[in-house]
Design a protein that fits this description.
nine-stranded mixed sheet, 37% strand, elongated, Immunoglobulin-like, 164 residues, alpha+beta, 1 helix
Length: 164
C-alpha cells in the first residue's frame, strides 16, 4: 500500500516536471525563433538593392541607356546614348542631370531625339553632358520631360556612374 502512495507521488512529481520542461522548451524555441527573425530582418534591411553591374546596359519599360553603362567611369564631358519611348520626350528632347554623392546637381544636358519622337516606340537619343568641378561617385538621372509641371506626370530613371 505504501508502495502505491510512493508511486502516485512520484508520478505527480514527474508529470509536473515534464509540464515545466515542455513549457521551458517552448519558451526557448520561441526566443530563438524571434532572434532569428530579427537578425534576418536586419540583414535584409541593410543589404543594398542590387544595381546592374558594369557591362550590362540599363533597361526599363521607358528608357534604355546604352552608354555610359552603370558604374562606368566617365570624363567630365561625356555623351549619354540610348533609347526612350516617344512619350518620354516633349518637342523631341528631355532633361538629363548628374548628381554628386550627396544629391547636389553637378552637371546637366539635354537629350535630343535622333529620329521621329512622336511614337509609342523606342526612339534613339543622344545627350552631351558637362560636369563642372566634381569627380567621384555620381548618379546619372534622365528625367521625363513634363511641360505640364503636374507631379503625376513626373518620371525619372537613374544609374550610378563615376566622374573622373
Amino acid at each position: 500500500m505504501w508502495y502505491a502512495t510512493i508511486l502516485q507521488l512520484s508520478r505527480a512529481l514527474f508529470q509536473s516536471y515534464d509540464e515545466t520542461m515542455n513549457t521551458r522548451i517552448w519558451m526557448v524555441v520561441c526566443i530563438v525563433l524571434f532572434v532569428v527573425i530579427i537578425v534576418l530582418g536586419w540583414i535584409l534591411a541593410t543589404t543594398p538593392a542590387s544595381t546592374p553591374s558594369a557591362g550590362e546596359p540599363f533597361v526599363s519599360d521607358m528608357v534604355k541607356i546604352t552608354s555610359p553603362l552603370p558604374n562606368a567611369a566617365v570624363a567630365k564631358t561625356f555623351t549619354v546614348k540610348g533609347y526612350a519611348r516617344g512619350r518620354w520626350y516633349f518637342e523631341a528632347s528631355f532633361p538629363v542631370k548628374v548628381n554628386d554623392a550627396s544629391g547636389k546637381e553637378v552637371g546637366s544636358g539635354i537629350a535630343q531625339a535622333e529620329s521621329d519622337w512622336m511614337t509609342e516606340e523606342f526612339v534613339p537619343f543622344s545627350a552631351p553632358i558637362i560636369v563642372a568641378d566634381y569627380s567621384g561617385p555620381a548618379t546619372l538621372v534622365l528625367l521625363k520631360d513634363n511641360p505640364s509641371g503636374l507631379p503625376e506626370h513626373d518620371d525619372a530613371v537613374s544609374i550610378p556612374i563615376v566622374i573622373q
